[in-house]
Amino acid sequence: QWGTLKQDLLKTVGQNNFKTWIEPLEFADLTEGAVTFHVPTNFFGNYVSQNFGDLILHKLTSNGQRVQRVHFKVSANSLDRPAPRPVAEKTDFVSPSVTKDSLPGAPLDARFTFDSFVVGKPNELANAAARRVAEGGPVTFNPLFLYGGVGLGKTHLMHAIAWDLQQRRPDLNVVYLSAEQFMYRFVQALRDRKMMDFKQLFRSVDVLMVDDVQFIAGKDSTQEEFFHTFNALVDQNKQIIISADRAPGEIKDLEDRIKSRLQCGLVVDLHPTDYELRLGILQTKVEQYREQYPGLQLADGVLEFLAHRISTNVRVLEGALTRLFAFASLVGREITMELTQDCLSDVLRASERKITVEEIQRRVAEHYNIRLSDMIGPKRVRTLARPRQVAMYLSKQLTSRSLPEIGRRFGGRDHTTVMHGVRRIEELRVQDGQIAEDLELLRRALEA
Ligand code: ADP
Ligand code: MG
């Protein structure tokens, strides 16, 4: 039973995900509508539950199982499994001339620590993975690949790892730099004919963090060098942490061998913030501002209002609060709702709410009177497939998501499936008056 289901899952999630996350699952039992799987660690369980929980449930129910819940439990016997490979002995081919001062890293921002990082649902996995790496124990996943949109905390987390490691393991050479700086160093070394030094320098690093790696896409020789550096470090079992604004597979003009290397370790995304996380961040910031601006009054509801209205990214949210406090202290007034709206009118206007794929799915499901779970579920009957295609079409039209990203939000479908759906609706829109009308209604409702 579970065996055939696994095969089915392999097709949906792809080889990489399957190997890492599905294969290790052990079926434990099925009672009263709840299936339990054994997992090696809590972290593992959380990850699988978040990312594949719904999918597994779908597969089970569509296979005729009466299941309402899927649980992941750490199995008792996984505690005495052999520990992961230890970190390799520090290699000694590195010339002694490499000292910490000559390391190629960029300076770290003192504000970006784990203490100041507010954790919520959208970033808890990224945070957990970062903390694990920061413990400086044996390398368990390599690389750690963090991705997510602008201002969601990728750089913050990387700096936090670096700060922590410097505290805990001062013996390690920890280097943080942006992909752009990597390229700059590389070009400089080429120009000055110092490639040997360049290679030696980077290969002497114990923990390498490269931020915004999408930057090297399309830059052939930099990619080549990055690939060699990457492989050399992985071979020595040195930890690598990479960030990008999208998943490895979705970075255009990045060599396939690099993409697949980047996918080898743990890939975690920072999801867009939710209301609770934004509120938490604002509250933390206000605590800090209270020291800077003692005596400043903040009216009830202002933070909630901001958390609700500014949903783009954390950087904008922080900027708004900074401006608000500076302005209020300048004019010596309490921060009221009114003052907030005056002072931030441009920011508030610019961050008018954005339509999400999830919202579209919900609206379309309502409109056609089908269940939301069927919208993303595997069934292919026409009565479900058509609304699904409508939702895919609208997602393509009204959001900035790419086809693969949309596919993922529709229960892990392939981008070609999405493309097919979008095309089909484009055709029908011309041929079928009813569909055209539905689309118009839905679009208006969503943009309202
Ligand atoms: P990214 O590198 O993903 O574009 P950054 O790490 O530069 O984003 O974060 C942008 C700003 O938002 C920084 O000032 C950072 O401290 C702040 N920030 C982002 N996420 C959080 C969080 N969860 N808690 C506290 N501050 C955050
Ligand atoms: Mg960044």
UniProtKB/TrEMBL annotation:
For the AAA+ ATPase domain, which residue ranges apply? 140-270
Cellular compartments per GO CC: cytoplasm; plasma membrane
Q: Does the keyword Cytoplasm apply?
A: yes
Q: Where does ATP bind?
A: 151, 153-155
For the region Domain I, interacts with DnaA modulators, what residue ranges are annotated?
1-77
Q: Where is this chain's protein located in or outside the cell?
A: Cytoplasm
SUPFAM superfamilies in the record: P-loop containing nucleoside triphosphate hydrolases, TrpR-like
Q: Which PROSITE patterns match?
A: DNAA
Note the SMART domains from the entry. Answer: AAA, Bac_DnaA_C
- Pfam families this protein is in? Bac_DnaA, Bac_DnaA_C, DnaA_N
Name the segments for region: Domain IV, binds dsDNA: 329-448
Swiss-Prot/TrEMBL GO biological process terms: DNA replication initiation; regulation of DNA replication
Per UniProt, residues of the Chromosomal replication initiator DnaA C-terminal domain are: 356-425
What is the top-level taxon of the source organism?
Bacteria
* UniProtKB keywords: ATP-binding, Cytoplasm, DNA replication, DNA-binding, Lipid-binding, Nucleotide-binding
A GO molecular-function term, please? lipid binding
**Which InterPro entries does the UniProt record give?**
AAA+_ATPase (IPR003593), Chromosome_initiator_DnaA (IPR001957), Chromosome_initiator_DnaA-like (IPR020591), Chromosome_initiator_DnaA_CS (IPR018312), DnaA_C (IPR013159), DnaA_dom (IPR013317), DnaA_N_dom (IPR024633), DnaA_N_sf (IPR038454)
- What PANTHER family does the database record attribute to this sequence? CHROMOSOMAL REPLICATION INITIATOR PROTEIN DNAA
Summarize the protein's role: Plays an essential role in the initiation and regulation of chromosomal replication. ATP-DnaA binds to the origin of replication (oriC) to initiate formation of the DNA replication initiation complex once per cell cycle. Binds the DnaA box (a 9 base pair repeat at the origin) and separates the double-stranded (ds)DNA. Forms a right-handed helical filament on oriC DNA; dsDNA binds to the exterior of the filament while single-stranded (ss)DNA is stabiized in the filament's interior.
Record-stated family: Belongs to the DnaA family.
Q: What is known of its domains?
A: Domain I is involved in oligomerization and binding regulators, domain II is flexibile and of varying length in different bacteria, domain III forms the AAA+ region, while domain IV binds dsDNA.
* Subunit organization: Oligomerizes as a right-handed, spiral filament on DNA at oriC.
Report the protein name in the record: Chromosomal replication initiator protein DnaA
Originating species: Shimia gijangensis
Classification from the root reads:
Bacteria, Pseudomonadati, Pseudomonadota, Alphaproteobacteria, Rhodobacterales
